[in-house]
Amino acid sequence: RELISEQLSEEGYAVSLADGSDHALELLMAQAFALILSDVWMAPRDGFALLSEIRDRSLATPVVLMSAVAPPGTLERAREAGAAGFLQKPFTQAQLFEVVRATRLR
To answer: What is the rounded distance in angstroms from the CA atom of residue 66 to the CA atom of residue 9?
Structure first.
């Protein structure tokens, strides 16, 4: 997450880091964000549970999920859950910027 933060910051994006799903929800309730990048595998909730919680709270912030481990059906599950995008790790800086730009233009 530090590398992603650094890359996005260098491109002029304002970035906030959360050290887990609970911290992410705290940040989301305190301020608005244009985009959320979330790993699928984290604690105490995974990225799908975080996405569900965000939607349950009626937050319209686009969420891009990412994971190094993506069993068959993960991309479809992400779409069905309402994710704005999915990044399969490892991904390039160009792929990161592409999904961020595409998501922010929606």
So the answer is: 19
H or E element: which one contains 63? strand 63-67
CB-neighbour burial class of residue 13 (10 A; exposed 0-12, middle 13-18, buried 19+): middle
Q: How far lies 104's CA from each of 13, 70, 84, 100, in Å?
A: 11, 24, 10, 6
**Residue-wise pLDDT tens digits, 34-55:** 999 999 988 788 999 999 999 9
For 66-89, the DSSP string reads EES---TTHHHHHHHHT-SEEEES
- Whether the per-residue pLDDT at 26 is higher than 80: the answer is yes
Q: Identify the DSSP state of 65.
A: E
Strand order in the sheet with 36-39: 36-39, 63-67, 85-88
